[in-house]
Every structure is written in C-alpha cells, then in structure tokens.
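Lab channel / #folding
Pinned by the channel admin:
"Please post every new chain as: sequence first, then the structure tokens as a reply. Keep commentary short and put observations after the output so the thread stays searchable."

First post following the new format, from NK:
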Amino acid sequence: MIELTLAEIADIVGGRLADIDDAAAAATRVTGTVEFDSRAVTSGGLFLAMPGARTDGHDHAAAAIAAGAVAVLAARPVGVPAIIAPPAAGPAGAGVLEHDRDGSGAAVLAALAKLAAEVARRLTADGLTIIGVTGSSGKTSTKDLLAAVLAPLGEVIAPPGSFNNELGHPWTVLRATTSTDYLILEMSARHPGNIAALARIAPPSIGVVLNVGTAHLGEFGSRQAIADTKAELVQAVGASGAVVLNADDPAVDAMAEQTAARVIRVSRAPGTGIGLWATDVVLDGLARPRFRLHRPDGDAVPVALAVHGDHQVSNALCAAAVALECGADLTQVADALAGAGPVSARRMQVSTRADGVTVVNDAYNANPDSMTAGLKALAWMARGEPGAERRRSIAVLGEMAELGEDAIAEHDRIGRLVVRLDVSQLIVVGTSRPMGAMFNGAVMEGSWGSEAIAVEDAAAALELLRTELRPGDVVLVKASNSAGLGALAETVAADIAGDPGARHPGPVRDDAPR
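Reply from TO:
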C-alpha cells in the first residue's frame, strides 16, 4: 500500500482512534501490507479484524501488533492501537460475512472499501492502469495469463488465487504501491450490483468479459440476469478506456452496446469487427493448445500455451488483447504466453507421477461450463496426439454448487457427457440428490454398470483410486470447492507410485478459503 499515517487512514474511512493519541497517530505510518490473517502480518502493516468461521480477528489484534502491525482496523476497541470503523451504512459483503453476527465485519469491510478506493484514486492519478476481469468461468486462469503478458511491460499486482469478492478485491487494491504499473482485479458476483460496487472501489480503465454461463444460477435465477451483472463491468469503463469482449459468446458480444469505451473483440475465427483472433488450433498430448495469433494489420505469430485445455485459447486471446492495448507487440505476447504455466492452485493443475499417472486437479470450483471444459481436456489427454497409445481416463467428480432449481438437470447432463466423451471410469463423490442425478445420467446414457461408481465421500474415493489406478492413467478431479476434493487430488498426485497401499499422512482435508 502507499504509505499513510494512522490519522490519514482514520480520516479516509471516517473512523476514530483508540489506544493511541492524536500526535502518535499523525506520526505513525503504515509502511507494510494490509492483512486479515494475523499470521501474514508484516512489519509496519495494518491488521483487519474480521470475523471468521472459527475465530474473530478482534481476538488476534494483540498478536498482530506483536508481529509488527502498527495498528488494527477494527469495529471496537481491542486494547492496542486501532482505527475504529463506523457502523456500516448498508449491506456489505453478502458473500463474505456469513459469520458476522454483530455487524463488526460489515463495518470493517466498508472501511476497507473506502481505504482501497482512496488508494486507487491516488495511484490512478499517478498513472496506474487498472484491469478488471469477469466471466462465469476462467477468471482466475485469465488473471494469471494477464499477469504474465504484462510483466515485461512493468510491475504487476494480481490477486493470488481467487481473491475476487468484497474482501479480496479491496485487499488486492491495497497491494499496489507507487511503483505498480498494472493492477489486475478479478471481479466476481453473487448478486446483481456486486460488480458495479467493486468497480466503484477501483474503476478499471480496461475491462475484460470472458463468458456468460450458469455459475451461481441459483442466486441469479436466469442466464440473462447473469449477463446483466457481468455487463456492469463494461458499463464502469469510461470513454477513454477499452473493453475486451469474447465475441464467441453472443451474450458477451452484445455488451458492446452497453459501454462508452472502445471495444476490442476477440474470437477463435476471423470476422468483421474482430480485433484479435486465433486459427489452426491444435492440442498436444497434455491438452496444451497451440495456435496462430492474428491481428487485422496482417501480423501473425505462432503461440504455444503452457496451460491445459482448449478453453484456454479464449482466455489467452483476451490476455493478449490487453497486453497489446498496453503497448506490447505480438512477439512479446507470444513469448510471455509460452512461459505462463498454471499459477493458481487447483485450477487445471496437471502433474504426472513417476508411474506415469497424470492427475488434473481442477477442484477449486465448478459449474456446468468449467466442468464441460475439464472433461473435454481429460478426454483429449487420454486420446493424445495422433499415433499415441490411448490412456485410461478417470473422472472423479463432486457437486457443482449454487445451481438452484437447475441442479438436478445440470448434474444429469454432466453424467451423460462423461459417457459421450468415452471416459473410462466415472467416480461420483457425494450422496446428495444432484450427485445421484449425475450417476443416474451416466448409467442411463451408457448402461455402464461398474464403469460408473458412486462413493460417499473423498476418503472413499481415495481408497477406490488407490485400488484401481494403473500406470499411465489420467485422472481429473473436479468439483466446487465446498465438495472438498482439492486435497484428494493432491494426495493422489503425491502417493507413492506403484504402491496402492501407500497412505498419505493425515486425513483428507480441504482448508482452502471459501
């Protein structure tokens, strides 16, 4: 964060000081990072006292100060130097504050948003370029590609993992300093208005919309409502900015009419009004795409991606369009994309064991679109390049959350898709009605018998895999994060090759943030 005194921060957020006098607050500067985990506090930092599922950050205020923080942003006095946030004026952080019983989290979150907005305003005035990315799927992968293609042009700040909500978004903004050239922000939504609110904190000069799918369909009610919410990003970009739209998605392409900014369309095919496109797309044996990247002036370069899945072509096109807008040339873009391997954990994270078993850990999140993309990548890896020996494929699938009344139909469709893609083995993890629909869909589509197996939980899936895996198999583990299959994939990837009796120390867990 840019350096600010505690007095300045209190003034920005409209808070009051506690356990520190005015003179000390005017002299004490935040020179470190802003953190909501007391274990991550650095010297000179600011600690955010947020309520959590297991503990309240207010209870860790003293530990944060002992670790080097100069103050705490809190909702009440905590016995150490603090800035006390005023009560939140309205709802804040609906997707973040499920454990906020007394409104303390909402107050701190609202103050954090004010602080981030002021920092973003000052840095933008000094030349910072803010890039916002949204879409029903692919945001994190595209964010990682963007960070890679912009790195040759200057200092880049991007969120780790999927820090894309009312807490992670302003937290990422506050990672930027006066030396930052590009700030990349993922922008997620659980309700209409969420993206517009995030955009007000840090108004983007470049917006990227990847796709409109069915993620959070249960929250929004319709695909059109999802499209309207994603369009909040393009509406937030001013006339001097630019928006990058994936023209292969009609709902995204239509957003060109909703922005005052200059529109850059990307596509997997040339066409009228397309500013960047790909041709000659092929995949290697691990489903890494290669293609030719074109722009309207006739320039073209070959691109070989280091990430996995045919769907990454559209993500790469969007990242390339942003880099070109920021001053890169095609060769720089191609080189950067070639070196941009998977960064964020549990998102098409591919590893191969000593016995040749390839594990695809894509268990951080799932919706019907990303599940389809993951299964297609699995089928390709099993089939391989022409002339390669076919490998046995195993899909270990958990529940796709937040699909509302479409949950049964969508899980049934995925079960049938597994059969149509000729996946060798389906392991359905979980006993909910949607998972029953996935299992039944597979059976009804292909009368598989033992080729479709339902197990109770991740531990049962692990035991089955340890019994059934053979050298050279390809395994996809995919589910919404709440299903807890990410640790399962990591355990399978780490197991002793060739020893089905090997045991991973400790229980199968998933401690990723939800």
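NK: DSSP finds 17 helices and 22 strands in the chain.
TO: also worth noting, Residues 383 and 389 are 7 Å apart (CA to CA).
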